[in-house]
Design goal:
The protein is α/β, with parallel strands linked by helices. The chain contains twelve helices and 13 strands. Pfam families: LacI, Peripla_BP_3.
Length: 368
């Protein structure tokens, strides 16, 4: 799928940094009380501490840790929040980003949220306190506290790996619903009607949930009901095996199972082999991520290829361009001089392999 770029409606961002005096005024306390709370919350009276905490959260106040020695300074650091440091998808994105930023003398500050919204808020607050040159977060669905912080940020904000909503500055990614729809169409065209989706912790992994919803909604229009398995143990080959067991228990005549990622799909393949279920003749299996093993496992796995490195490179290129032109007024700037938000859709690719093709279909494809 081709890359596209469009300019969406602009979210108005805060142009003035929220100060300690602003927090004090809202909490109806002195600035010295706010300062004490920031240094040692337990030293502040229990009567006023909740008011200060609430004011900080509502206003999106971030203390400037450089104020004492480097007033008005900005580091050459880029704050990056990813859901997981062990996930190969995000590793490829961060590596591409780091390589491009290195060429221009910038360094990454990296943190993992573990799909926890409160932890994401804490990481964003910490990174902003060091006055980063820019901030990169994963996804475009954040809790209110994080959104407040991002709106108040005085540095460019990039959201990656997902498209949707109204961006703060920049979004680079693809539609996860479209991924689900693409997999649904593929399985439906193979003749599968008894289909399951296997995911893990999808209340937190919202992008996996979107892929599930895209697949389920597309098939619902064809009159096909999808059996959804959502395990809370996290994505692993073990949970993939457990997911297949749960899917077969709920749908004994299962014909196809779409997995939230390749790791889960690998577990499904192992469990199918253990149970004597032929893949693909008895069960079609698909994954997501195009991880290196997907091409060499038995059978080779049908999967979705997200352009992970491209996302990292485009994030770096777009942010560097904004930083170079910061303060200039051009055709892409709004009335207040800030660049208009931009959405870059890098697309994705369906990679069809033997795990979702019947023997007859494989033979036909080889002849063609």
């Amino acid at each position: 799928m081709s890359q596209t770029s469009k300019a969406p409606t602009r979210i108005r961002r805060g142009t003035n940094r929220v100060t300690m005096d602003d927090v004090a005024a809202r909490a109806r306390v002195s600035a010295s009380s706010v300062s004490l709370f920031l240094r040692n919350p337990d030293a502040v009276s229990p009567r006023i501490a909740p008011r200060i905490k609430q004011a900080i959260e509502v206003l999106g106040y971030v203390p400037n840790l450089l104020a004492g020695s480097l007033a008005a300074a900005r580091t050459r650091a880029i704050g990056v929040v990813v859901p997981s440091l062990s996930n190969a998808f995000f590793s490829a994105t961060v590596a591409a980003m780091q390589k491009e930023f290195d060429r221009h003398g910038y360094q990454l500050l990296l943190g993992a949220s573990d799909y926890d919204t409160a932890r994401e808020t804490g990481l964003v607050r910490t990174f902003l306190s060091w006055s980063p040159t820019a901030l990169v977060v994963t996804g475009c669905r954040h809790d209110d506290a994080t959104r407040t912080l991002l709106r108040q940020a005085r540095a460019p904000v990039a959201e990656m790996w997902e498209l949707g909503g109204e961006p703060f500055d920049l979004q680079v990614g693809f539609s996860h619903r479209a991924v689900g729809e693409t997999l649904a169409e593929h399985l439906y065209e193979l003749g599968a009607r008894r289909i399951a989706f296997a995911g893990a912790r999808m209340t937190s992994d919202l992008r996996a949930r979107q892929r599930c919803d895209g697949l389920r909604d597309w098939l619902a229009k064809k009159g096909v009901e999808v059996f959804v398995v959502d395990l809370q143990s996290g994505a692993s080959p073990t949970s993939g095996g457990d997911a297949l067991g749960a899917a077969l228990a709920g749908m004994p005549d299962l014909q196809a199972i779409a997995c939230s990622n390749d790791v889960m799909a690998l577990g499904v393949l192992f469990e199918a082999q253990r149970r004597g279920i032929g893949v693909p003749d008895q069960l079609a299996v698909t994954g997501f991520g195009a991880l290196p093993f997907s091409e060499v496992c038995v059978p080779p796995l049908t999967t979705i290829q997200p352009h992970a490195a491209t996302i990292g490179l485009r994030i770096a290129q777009e942010l560097l361009q904004r930083l170079e032109t910061q303060g200039d007024t051009d055709s892409t700037a709004s009335a207040d001089g800030a660049p208009e938000p931009q959405v870059v859709d890098v697309g994705f690719q369906l990679v069809v392999r033997q795990s979702s093709l019947t023997t007859r279909a494989v033979a036909a494809s080889e002849v063609s």
